[in-house]
Fold each of these.
Amino acid sequence: MWSRWRLRVLRTGNSGLPNFVALGEQTIPAGFLLVVAVIGRYEEFLATLPKDLHGECARQIARRFSVGCGTAEIYHGDGGHFAWLERDSAADNRVEHFEGMRALFSAPLLVGGHMFDTNVHFGIDRNGQFDTLTRLNTALASATEALRHGRTVEQFEANRLANAPWELSLLARIDEGMRNGDIWLAYQPQWEYRDNRISGAEALIRWNDPVRGPIRPDEFILQAERAGRIDALTYWVLEQAITSAEAFNTLGARFQMSINLSAQLVDKPSLVSATAEIVHRRGIDCRLLTIEVTETASVYNRPDAIRNLQELRTMGFRLSIDDFGTGEASLCYLADLPSDELKLDRRFVSRIVDS
């Protein structure tokens, strides 16, 4: 009786797969990752299925994960979460590995005559100093973050615990940095070889904090996205870059200014009106401005994003798709995006040369 009760406790009822209680009782060997995968819209899939097919749906997903990671034991949690342990690898190989895992779900699931397209994201924990339950919770949080931001994989870093006070005060620190000049724009020149002159520049945000010193853009921009502060930061960049573009163009030569736009902002209803207000106030020709959009595949509301980009293009803005060849960016994602320019990521180009 005890063994039967233990089996019920350690297994998910509908799928028969081991659950997260069972995983929490495991000791993770040294050199192993704890991986959590989350299936977007999983509950919506289940709502369209007869209840007796819920288990089959979970087992099909688990089989694909098992093929991808080479691990027989896949754990099934709530809300479309699955987990397993696998041997760690080098960072570059790790990203490619999870991109490959994601590719396994490019073919739809077919369950009892019902077909579903799946969207999978991963969270990983590599911190062997923590117990299994702590690592499971951090991997769960990372997977949720990957789903929220449209990224393939997020990794929990132990130093984020130490940085919690910094991240919690980020909103005030960004405001302060924009006011006192600690946050500023650098301008990377763009050279026109036919005319042998500087024809434009790309505005690049920088932060030199009085206490922490220089902070890499990828660090504080990611934190700003987590804190919901990316909108204010992006509009500040637009204001500063457009003001500089106007100043450059009063010197006489045609000068093109490129400005990066967060994928989190590109589908916002306020984007076009806020950008138009800055342009009209500064009195600059929109044709002298290029909007660069990165991580296009992570846009949450694609129809609204396309509509916003089309309106910006109608106003005269040039549109550039940045860092093609990274993450989920592909020709399929680009097909319906209005654009004038495609920037290839260096890693993408180097893979073509080496292949």
Note: The longest helix spans residues 230-249.
Amino acid sequence: MHRVGFIASLIIGLAAAPIVSSAQGSGSGPVAGAIGEWDGNRVVATIYGRARGRADRDGTLSWLGLPYARPPVGELRWKAPQEPLAWKGVREARSFGRSAPQFLPFIGAISGSEDCLYLNVWRPDGPEAGLPVYVYVHGGGNSTGAANMVEDYYGYGVASKSNMVFVSMNYRLGPLGWFVDDSLLAGADPASASGNFGTLDIIMALEWVNRNISAFGGDPGNVTIAGESAGAMNALSMLVSDRASGLFHKAVVESAYKGTASVAQAREASSGVVAALLVKKRRAKSLDEARSLASAMPPAELAAFLRSVPARDIIASQKAGSVGMTGWPNIVRDGIVIPENGFDAFRTGEYPNKVPLVIGSNKEENKIFQYFSGSPDWKSDLYGKLATYGALLWKAEGVDAIADSISALPDHPPVYVYRFDWGAPDAEGESPLPGAWGRRLGAFHAAEVPFFLGTRTSLGPLFTARLYTAANKAGRDSLQAGIMAYLSSFARTGDPSALASGLPAWRPRGDGSYGLSMDAPGNEAVFSPLAAAVTRESVLARLAEEEPPEIRAAVLERVRE
């Protein structure tokens, strides 16, 4: 199958849903004090009303599509999320809520609904209460994706294999999730003025967990925030946001990349959307004319215009980027929701939520992006060099810089570093992946997700059919069991080794400890100490020392700046 077909298969489910821009409320307000205690019943009493879940796979129960905020439509577009409306009777919670409006990679469609602020809960089918809670944020560059985009993100694995309550959510994406325009500031509360609407959605979901999760048998005093890729960036943003204080107690960060957006960057991108919309709606003939018009319009008039246009038009005003993602500026350093120094707060120690942290990346993060871009050819030497140096820089800046900064602070929380290696070819070129897939994809970005969450697929059915084989099943199962034992222990105690009997000690960063590599080249998992940390300077020095000029130039041109 052509490589584009792979990605199309991942998002075809999202394409089936038409884009929607409005929704009706289902009640008049929250039901104060109506929360119930977990009693093993599939009908659960939240503070907003009762919801009926269903029996799910592997001996779990699930409640899908629960509203955690009011639909952010009409006057609520580009405002901080509002508390959801209550409902009467019993709500059927057996299907996922709609995804946020977004571009669908490669196939070019726009799908989703502004009525997207829903979350999902899984738990083991049994009487036990007071279980740890694992809140997972999906990836997708903060411009695509959904909690149910692929089965990898489902919560049955964590619920059944780790005996925890699992929560996932959708949140606003792209310019509907992060948007800064002066016309929206009049009368706005500080949170709504921040432009960080997607970030605020995730905080709102954590607040919902804090107020409701005991009804599902979860412990609101033991919550782990976790995520992969952009979801990991969002998890990091919770650490630095004082608005998330007290809502979680540990964090797991998979393949984040250190970076946030300035207010100026967000405002520039947002003004481009405003201009494009004015041209599309024939209020101006050119982008230059539209920019002049926008600056001359009364703020209230421009705000009303922006809140009246269809969500589809807002999403269409972006330009698609890598693997269909738009590169829209997000996690804005506004000084209200996110500190003005962003993730540099880890270096200074001036961040509010100093919780135990698991953080890591994959050995060949970049291969999946290279493969689907088609350049360079996967058979070329340059393909492997780009993967090697790109992943090293990813680890240097997205993992080790953060881990070393936190670990250097006085009275710092423990930081546990990992590198996920499964699928990467060894020195002889051998990989547990079949055929040439080790060379094509290896230990690619997002490959770790099913190992961390205990699910059975990797980026949907077509990838799974090609990458997961009978020959590598024993190793996969062993590696998944080991990783989940570490994370279960971490979620319960803040120490991945405390309850993970029979596994090598996973020591926190510092005193010569650099973390663990995670692999299964054969039938058994192998967890080995990492020999050293890497920095951007050390990676570039290695590039200069080991590679010929033509490779050096090509790598420097293509890797992240």
Note: The domain at 3-254 is CATH 3.40.50.1820 (Rossmann fold).
Amino acid sequence: MNVSSPRGVEVVLVREVTPELHSAAIQLVAELSSSAPSLRYDALEALVAHDAIDVFIAARDDDVIGMLTLATFPIPTGIRAWIEDVVVAAAARGSGAGMALVEAAVDRARELGARTVDLTSRPSREAANRLYQRAGFEQRDTNIYRLRL
């Protein structure tokens, strides 16, 4: 699946990990979270190979400028889809890469039979929240709980 945006951003569903992709993913994950461990090559390969995971990258002029993970899985009430770890390189923000990634993930979730797509975003990520709202996401009246293991 390759999708192009009007600003020359191409979104690709990753099917194979290369050293160049791995290097770009390490940099993007570091921009996303200062507490996340460095992404190992074999861990990225496992993500890409996992049946319930789709990894998308956004590229412009052959440079990887963004990444998104879509998790889809069956539960008794239907197919669930979650967007996670959306990141666009600081130098490429405002390029349309974020919207292109989100649209590609939503299309893929629909293709896989999901009726909804969920995601979380901290209120402090104002630009990200605006992006999700522009993409049609609505804030839900729900609580998210986390148990640290």
Note: The longest helix spans residues 97-111.
